Amino acid sequence: MRPFKSFSRKSAVRRNHERLLLIIGVVSLLADFVYESFRSVLYIIVKSGGLLNTCLIDGIGELTLSIARVLSPLAVKVFRLSTLYLLGYACAGFLVPAVVIPSLSYILYPLERFGKGLRTPSRDYLISSIPEKPGRKFSICELLDQSGAVLGPLIMLIMFSTTRSTDIIAISLALAYILCMITATYIYETYKKIEITTQRKHSHTVSQIPRTTILAIFIMALPLIFRTPLIMAQYLSSFKFYYREAEGIAIFLISTIFSIVFAYPIGRLIDKVKSRAMIIIPAACMLTFISLIKFQNYIIYSIVVGTVYGFTLAVCEIVPKAIVNYIISDSDARKFAYALLNAFIGVTYFIGNIIVPILYSYLKNLVLLVTISSLIDLTLAIALFMLSSRLL
Predict the structure, then answer these.
(1) Which of 110, 111, 164, 284 has the smallest number of CB atoms closer than 10 Å to its CB?
(2) Is residue 3 assigned to a domain?
(3) Which residue range(s) make up the domain with 273?
(4) Tens digit of pLDDT for each residue in 288-346?
(5) What DSSP state is assigned to residue 101?
(6) What's the total number of domains in the chain?
(7) Among 318, 357, 363, which residue's Cα sits nearest to residue 341?
(8) CB neighbourhood size of 296 (10 A)
(9) Half-sphere exposure of 205 (CA within 13 A, CB side)
(10) Of 173, 129, 138, 164, which is closest to residue 32 (Cα–Cα)?
């Protein structure tokens, strides 16, 4: 049941596959370390502009990410996946000068998010190409990815408690970025070899994917409309009686830690139930109503809500990718399927960050909004359950 078993009793080929999987995860860890470190200090380095400027930079970045996600199906038809993979991670370097010159954040942060949107489907396809159980391999990569999301803010917290020098922070991000690119370049060279062995002269991407599969991929992305980071923050900030900014940050940190804890068990579950794991996505999202419960003790509240959000985060990150790997065996079709999944998530995130806040301001009732989202999730769970039996 351990994610990292000893390689001693495995064949040389299997050890190479395991090594490749771990290196892919390390690349994601380092890139996430750079990104989450920057986000954790964004408000501090842009302090002259206040909270409004910070939210504006973050909003532009997330909008750019959504646009890049939507464009990813076109990108995978025009460019090699190995190229998108390397260029996508190279964009993480834009955040280093943004720490030193905060005014550049308006341009450099969206560029980094654009790279994130382009590299995601190429990374997911590469992981799917490794001959391991889908649930296990995607859970290991998610575990490493979220480890970077935890280490980044923690190290920034330590740095700001000892020194507030942006130069030192920039140097630490630069070192992490250099390590990220060294490992990403190694993966890039391996990726090119995989592309050569799987390349075909004629690829009919969309026509190779059954309509029921496309529908399932789309439905798996829909629950995220009510589960974007912005919406989660709005849920929490509604409890003004005892909610404070520092406590909100604590909840998200706890959520990320618990997403690491849940990652591997979720992967094991996927490998047991296969396509039927799809219904876990809306089912997990329905649990977010727990954030509406007002606990007298905020420590208990933080742990309970952080656990639920961590579980939901791990489910939404791992399950869709592993399911695509399970239900699509053709390599060319799978390339485009991951791009489609990325595009659908981009659309749902855009709707979530734009439409849902407008709906909330109109309803002026958070309980009603969460009830509506839960009913939608229940409907999606039923639809995915009906589709699951037709996909394997």
Answers:
(1) 164
(2) no
(3) 201-392
(4) 777 667 677 777 877 887 888 889 889 999 999 999 999 998 888 898 999 999 999 98
(5) S
(6) 2
(7) 318
(8) 7
(9) 14
(10) 173
